[in-house]
Amino acid sequence: MPRVAVIEDDLPTSNQLAGWIAAARPGIVIDQWTTRDEAEQAIERERYDLIVLDIELGRERHAGVAIINAINKRHGTPVLVVSAMPATIYRSIMKALDAWDYLQKSTFDEGDFVETFLDILRSVKEHRPVEALAMDPLRQRSPTWHGQRINLPLTAQRILAALFARRGQVVSYDELFDVVKSGRNRDNIRKHVSTIRDAFREIDPGFACIESVPMRGFRWTDPA
To answer: Where, per the database record, does this protein carry 4-aspartylphosphate (predicted)?
Structure first.
């Protein structure tokens, strides 16, 4: 099910937009954020399918610009900007920042918003690439890389799942200790990671998605 975020500091407006989305796509998961800090923290945690964003949040006149830049650095999630700023000025600015579309408040109705929102969501679905890594460690099924099975013991699968779930972020040794049942020390974690890398390189010699971060832990980075 798609997951979207509505980032809007005016709660009645936020609730209205969320209500329109929910009515148009029953069952869709909607997160609502009202501040730049909340929004940026959510972007770090979640991988949204689409983000509806106001430019001005509280006293920060261009908070939305900073949030779009943060989005582009993370996942490049499509953004629909909904703002009171004049469209004649800000539509081109937002396009330059790679926003997908711009709607000026008070100039559109529910039908306009829903049509634009659904068009973007359909486009995202049509163009989203299939992720190279597929895995289900809870069911003890071997993960696959580009469709090819990777032979890994269960503990290594759990570590891989932890890294992949937080891709782009550093997963600390302490966090990885929670994944293993025994051998909770750095040397053991490094051995498991080495096993994971070797297993990937058996089918993909150029595999380099797991980075070592000295003194901290490891990070999964998606292939370019």
So the answer is: 54
